[in-house]
Structure formats: C-alpha cells, structure tokens
C-alpha cells in the first residue's frame, strides 16, 4: 500500500478514492443542523477527523414528508481544492440510469467504480455517479449506518445517539401528523 500523507504534512499529490475511503475517520462532535431552503428537507452535517490532510465531513439529509427519500454521505475537501462527495447512500427515490446505461431501482450507493478507485477525486466534479443497488429498502438511520461502515467512520456513541434520535424524532413527528 502506498505511503499516506499524515495530517499537517505537505503532499505532492491528492490522495486517491481508495486512500480517502480506507483511512480511519472519527465522528466525535454531535451533528450540526443545517437549514435547507425547502422546509420539507432536514439536514445534519458532522465534522470528521482523519489521518489524512484535508477536511472530511459526513452528512445526513431526510425528506420530512417521505423519510425514505434520504441520503447519507462522505465529503472531502483538500487543503488546496474544492469539496467532493466521495460516497453517498440513498434511500429509494425512483429509478434512474447510471452513466453506463444500466438502471438503478431502489436504495443504492453512489461510489467509485473499480477503475476509479486509484484516481484522484477532483477528476469527478460532484463525486462518483455510478450507483450500486443495495437490494433492500433503507430508512434514514440505516443509510447513515451503511455509509459509516463503508467509509470506515468510527462514530462516537454520543454522535450515534444524536443521529438516531434525530431520525426517530422525525419519524415520530410524521406519525403524529396522522
């Protein structure tokens, strides 16, 4: 495995997808609520620490009216570059096509293809577009858990409780609307 630049060191190159996805990341601060333009959208951002230089963050987005319309993802911003989404887990939001023409139906993961794993992320403006079907419906908290597992994010128990509580509270408010 190639040497990885440690935080605070200068690097001559941008890490590849596989280096960014496989490095250990930690979520230790509670999620920060973000205001969305659409009142039906709820959003939270979580700052991450990692062994690589640059800024990692995770996000969770949920449609308050249709909680199966949810998304959890991992973002990376190089110290000298723009922000890119490295990985995104989506709940079911309708069928759509992959760049290769294949169709995706149901919950899915947007991530790099095997040939993209050793490429630097800035080559993709908004991150990988290829989607892999999960094969089962995913609720918002399940999207969060799967994304954290895939991205090797070690989540502090207080953060996990806060994310779970946000998802449960949202689901409860939908039930209260009757």
Biggest pleated sheet: 9 strands, mixed
Structural class: alpha+beta
Describe the global form: globular
| Number of spatially distinct domains | 1
Helix content: 10-25%
Overview of this protein structure:
- With 178 residues, this protein is α+β, with helices and mostly antiparallel strands.
- Helix content is 21%, strand content 30%.
- It is built from three helices and eleven strands.
- The radius of gyration is 17 Å and the shape is globular.
What's a concise summary of this model?
This protein is of the alpha+beta class and 178 residues long. It is 21% helix and 30% strand. The strands form 2 sheets. Strands 1, 2, 3, 4, 5, 6, 9, 10 and 11 form a 9-stranded mixed β-sheet that branches. It has a two-stranded antiparallel ribbon with strand order 7-8.
Keywords:
178 residues; alpha+beta; 9-stranded mixed beta sheet; two-stranded antiparallel ribbon; 11 strands; disordered N terminus
List the topology elements.
Layout (H helix, E strand, L loop, with lengths): L16 H6 L2 E3 L4 E3 L6 E10 L4 E9 L6 E8 L5 E8 L5 E2 L5 E2 L3 E3 L20 E3 L6 H11 L2 E3 L1 H20 L2
Parallel strand pairs: 1-11
Antiparallel strand pairs: 1-3, 2-3, 3-4, 4-5, 5-6, 6-9, 7-8, 9-10
């Amino acid at each position: 495995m190639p040497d990885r630049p440690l935080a605070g060191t200068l690097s001559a190159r941008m890490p590849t997808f596989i280096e960014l996805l496989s490095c250990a990341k930690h979520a230790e601060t509670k999620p920060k609520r973000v205001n969305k333009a659409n009142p039906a959208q709820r959003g939270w951002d979580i700052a991450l620490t990692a062994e690589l230089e640059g800024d990692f963050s995770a996000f969770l987005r949920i449609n308050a009216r249709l909680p199966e319309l949810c998304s959890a993802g991992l973002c990376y911003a190089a110290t000298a570059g723009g922000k890119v989404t490295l990985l995104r887990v989506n709940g079911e939001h309708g069928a759509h096509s992959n760049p290769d023409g294949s169709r995706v139906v149901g919950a899915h993961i947007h991530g790099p293809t095997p040939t993209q794993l050793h490429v630097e992320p800035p080559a993709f403006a908004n991150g990988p577009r290829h989607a892999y079907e999960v094969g089962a419906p995913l609720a918002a908290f399940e999207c969060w858990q799967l994304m954290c597992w895939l991205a090797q994010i070690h989540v502090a128990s207080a953060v996990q409780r806060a994310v779970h509580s946000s998802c449960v509270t949202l689901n409860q408010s939908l039930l209260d609307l009757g």
